[in-house]
Amino acid sequence: MDAIDRKILAVLQTDGRVTITELASRVGLSVSPCHRRLRELERSGTIRGYRAVVSPAALGLTFQALVFVTMRQEDRETLLGFEKRVARVPEVVQAQRLFGDPDYLLRIITADLTAYQELEDDVLSTLPGVQRLTSALVMKHIVDDRPLPT
């Protein structure tokens, strides 16, 4: 990846709907070479896709929690079972396995505290291997959906 590829990525991270003509102009290429580079970035998996970034509040999803999960047991079968099941919970918008304690960090979005409480009681606490759930409620977003440094 060279400097021009990085410029292409920088532009697309802030404006994914830019036309190929405008993209080429912004990165200093003609359309054809810019298009080839763009297709290669997509083919290689560097660009994983394009999507709309939707406001959670517009959907009535105004409550967010970070949930730290400590596992009771950490054998392969239990961890894979937990990961498979947590991936199917729509309110989990991010899930990360961590080194050390706790074992996982989940970012949860729901409509309100009551919806979160029901999710924790009825879904999260029943996931395979869960020993403890510790929640931190999100008060305010300072940095959200920042483009990756290129």
Description:
The protein is elongated. A hairpin with a 6-residue loop joins β2 and β3 (104-110). The model has no long low-confidence stretch (mean pLDDT 96). With 150 residues, the protein is α+β, with helices and mostly antiparallel strands. A four-stranded antiparallel beta sheet has the order 2-3-1-4. 36% of the residues lie in helices and 20% in strands. The relative contact order is 0.16. It is built from five helices and four strands; from the N terminus they run αααβαββαβ.
The gist of it:
This protein has helices spanning 3-14, 20-27, 31-43, 76-86, 113-122, and strands at 63-71, 92-97, 104-110, 130-137.
Average of pLDDT: 96
Strand order of the largest sheet: 2-3-1-4
The termini sit apart by 10 Å
Fraction of residues in β-strands = 15-25%
Helix count equals 5
The arrangement of helices and strands along the chain is HHHEHEEHE
* Poorly predicted spans: none
Alpha-beta content class: alpha+beta
Shape: elongated
From the structure provided, what is the oligomeric state, counting identical versus distinct chains? single chain
Largest sheet: 4 strands, antiparallel
Cα radius of gyration in angstroms: 20 Å
DSSP strand count: 4
- Estimate the helix proportion, in percent: 25-40%
List keywords for this structure.
150 residues; alpha+beta; 4-stranded antiparallel sheet; 5 helices; 4 strands
